[in-house]
Amino acid sequence: MFDYLAQFIQDKYNTSSFIPLHEPRFIGREKDFVSSTIDSTFVSSVGKYVDQFEDDLAKYTGSKKAIAIVNGTSALHLSMLMADIKPGDYVITQALTFVATCNAISYCQAEPILIDVDKHTLGLSPIALESWLDDNAYLDSDQVCKLKNSNRTIKACIPMHTFGHPVEIDTLEIICNAWNLALIEDAAESLGSLYKNTHTGTFGLMGTLSFNGNKIITTGGGGAILCNENLYSKGKHLSTTAKIPNNIHFVHDEVGFNYRLPNINAALGCAQLESIDTFVAQKRDLAHEYAELFHNSNLEFFTEPKNCRSNYWLNTVICDDLSQRDILLSSLTGKDIMARPVWTPMHKLPMFRNAIKDGLKNTSWLEERIVNIPSSLPPKLI
Ligand SMILES: Cc1ncc(COP(=O)(O)O)c(C=O)c1O
After folding, report:
1. Closest atom of ligand 1 to CA, residue 161
2. 224 exposed, middle or buried (CB, 10 Å; 0-12, 13-18, 19+)?
3. Mutate which of 106, 212, 216, 346 to test ligand 1's pocket (most atoms within 8 Å of Cβ)?
């Protein structure tokens, strides 16, 4: 079963050896830029590529500013601190996400509230969010959002653009504004994805990106925070050990973090970003070929939501049921083709088992059906 799919993938990647889910492609000036940091000795915390990468990212996404951070998880952590999330606060997110979203909430000693996703976006459902807030939250006399049964503060909401497909971010923004929730977008997977022609990660107060080796562009390890000018200064300060600029003395005015992206990683990022249009276009071509292949099969290939341009970071199949999912997984992995189910939803992980949650109907439905299939750029396309 599913031999046609395995054959298509092996032909596409021109190999019968192991095919990973997503590997990086270096088709531009990566070696030149990285070598130049070695030649200059500026491989670490400062250097021209950090500034250039931040400027290039801001320009590409249309954000006012971008802060280069050591990885996407730290970018999430720092953005939450910048949004003033305090120990004991609640932060709403989707149950179907990568664990880093919830881990970063825990780093702030806050707690996640887990809300369902939509089947047509795979991301946080505005309807589920609004209905949960109507039933469980209220605005106090200072217009602070509180949980009805404990009066604890609900501070923020973090939707995630799953596999690069944009969530309905404009509707979520309206709900967050009405409930006075800081909106932070986990756009780790969606560099290059647009919602109504605007880049994901630029709708909320902040958006975070990841440049891990499996993402659409990589800096080895890395991340970024998209934000406005005021938050930029705050974020730069906190990510640089909260050091007051001084050529001689070491003075730090609060507990800061060593979360800066090193120059050598930023150099890689600058070169990768030069290829982003090619990567997005070719990943979309690959997705269209998959969509055609699945058109006459009994499997559903997940396509971008309405009004969106998705980067199709990870191509996604929605199976009929759990048993078909498992057959698909074993049939591909048996042929050395990497295929993965979706993440275990957050409420099923031991550390978030007691989190407040809604019915999570779509989360459970999708958990049994999603399979990610190889999504790197095929060598012939490059
Ligand atoms: C949705 C999501 N959030 C956060 C992260 C964390 O990024 P990083 O691995 O760069 O820490 C990732 C990816 O790894 C992710 O997929």
Report:
1. 1
2. buried
3. 212
- Listing DSSP states for 30-79 in one string gives HHHHHHHHHHHS--SS--HHHHHHHHHHHHHHT-SEEEEES-HHHHHHHH
Asked if 30 contacts 272 with a C-beta cutoff of 8 angstroms, the reply is yes
114 phi and psi angles, rounded to 5 deg: -105, 120
Phi (first) and psi of residue 115, to 5 degrees: -115, 155
Beta strand 340-341 with 370-373 is antiparallel
Q: Is the CB of 63 under 6 A from ligand 1?
A: no
212 within ligand 1 shell (Cβ under 6 A) = yes
How do residues 138-188 score in pLDDT, each as one tens digit? Answer: 999 999 999 999 999 999 999 999 999 999 999 999 999 999 999 999 999
Q: What percent of the chain has pLDDT over 70?
A: 99
Ligand 1 pocket member 93 (CB < 6 A)? no
What confidence tens digit (pLDDT) does each residue in 260-273 have?
A: 999 999 999 999 99
d(CA 243, CA 286): 46
Tens of pLDDT, residue by residue over 323-337, are: 999 999 999 999 999
Q: Tell me which H or E stretch contains 313.
A: none
**Is the pTM here over 0.85, yes or no?**
yes
Phi, psi of 240 (to 5 degrees): -120, 45
> From the CA of 310, how far away is ligand 1's center (Å)?
18
3-state secondary structure of 131: helix
Cβ atoms of residues 69 and 261 within 8 Å: yes
Q: Is the pLDDT of residue 1 over 80?
A: no
For ligand 1, what atom is nearest to the CA of residue 223?
Answer: 10
Tell me the torsion sign for CA atoms 114, 118, 121, 122: positive
Concatenating the DSSP letter of every residue in 164-230 gives GPPP-HHHHHHHHHHTT-EEEEE-TT-TT-EETTEETTSSSSEEEEE--TTSSS--SS-EEEEE-HH
Give yes or no for a contact between 225 and 234, defined as CB atoms under 8 angstroms apart.
no
- Tallying the residues shown for the chain, one arrives at 382
